[in-house]
């Protein structure tokens, strides 16, 4: 991250935090799932929130990002971090055991473009690379989502391949630990 971007991001680090998602978040996640910008980025997934919020497999984290907006902490977005080699649906197919895959979105359109997503992703990557064995993180935005591509590329993610996941035409991106470490997160 360039030093000017790093300086601008510092105050955001204190304003955004991640916590475990739980059954109390069910209505919120259902609401976010219906927002046009979320549907546009993830049109064909059924997260099965009622079931998934109760499950606690050791290969996955479901997280709610919260922001301190001056009046207290409020929900901001969602992050899922998985070990794609161990994930039970085998969504990623055959992959190495030393990876993490991330899903991320901001819940309300009014929170887009304010730097929150950058801080959410930074914190997600810190979590991914906290485990010494993790060598890279993966993401799979829709091929048509050019804004997401630019967002991930700013973090150092590199395009790997164009791939279909079910009905979704996606770009697979990868961020290697060495590229992340050189950014001074």
TrEMBL record:
Organism per entry: Marilutibacter chinensis
Listed transmembrane segments: none
N-acetyltransferase domain: residues covered: 16-178
InterPro entries: Acyl_CoA_acyltransferase (IPR016181), GNAT_dom (IPR000182)
Coiled-coil spans in chain: none
UniProt-recorded name of the protein: Acetyltransferase
Xref: Pfam families: Acetyltransf_8 (PF13523)
Protein origin, superkingdom: Bacteria
